Amino acid sequence: MDYREIVEKDLGRKLLSTEIVHHKDGNQHNNKLSNLEITNRNGHLKKKHLTSKDWEKVIQDLLVDNINITAQNFNNALDILFTFRQKEIIFRKIYGFRLSKTEKEYYSRIIKKKIRAVASTTLYRIARILATQ
After folding, report:
1. Do 66 and 14 have their domain in common?
2. Furthest CA-CA distance within the chain
3. Quick one: angle between helices 112-119 and 121-132, nearest 10?
4. What is the pTM of this model?
5. What is the pLDDT of residue 50?
6. CA distances from 132 to 21, 118, 125, 127 (A)
7. Fewer Cβ neighbours under 10 Å: the N or C end of the chain?
8. Which residues of 33-56 are buried (b: 16+ CB within 10 A; e: fewer)?
9. How far apart are CA 75 and CA 39, in angstroms?
10. The pLDDT of residue 13
11. Which pLDDT band holds residue 109 (cuts at 50, 70, 90)?
């Protein structure tokens, strides 16, 4: 059964053309009713699940051509510093997806501090010294 049909059967009506069925866990094959929710286009864009391929595309878009680093290496480096959820929030912010109030607070309280630390030239110099020891 198609996931739209599953939701329609549960609702007892046809879905409107403006209603989109979102898979909460991001798995298009998991059509359990508990994994499906109705949203609209704007709501669905906010809930978009970013995969590693998406992250690599974002990273490629952000990197300047003269930087000799692959998106995969950069993605691996991010994995060391940020959790999966933190990376998702970072890239949703880069793509311009609207963050929830909780995500905004978490971004400013936790993630932004880590990003500032990474951008610190002093921390970079210390890291280079420690990495070679």
Report:
1. no
2. 66
3. 70
4. 0.47
5. 59
6. 51, 18, 11, 9
7. C
8. eebbebeeeeeeeebeebeeeebe
9. 30
10. 93
11. very high
Rounded (5°) CA angle 115-117-122: 140
Which domain range does residue 30 map to?
Answer: 3-46
Least confident span in 13-27, 37-51, 83-97, 110-124: 37-51
Question: What number is the average pLDDT over the span 118-122?
Answer: 84
Enumerate residues 6+ apart whose C-beta is below 8 A from 102.
none
Asked whether the beta carbons of 85 and 52 are under 8 A apart, the reply is no
Residues 73 and 42 in one domain: no
Residues 6+ apart with CB under 8 A from 45: 97
Count of domains forming the chain: 2
Q: How confident is the model at residue 65 (pLDDT cuts 50, 70, 90)?
A: very low
Inter-residue contact 44 to 38 (CB < 8 Å): no
Same domain, 58 and 123: yes
Q: 19 or 75: which carries more pLDDT confidence?
A: 19
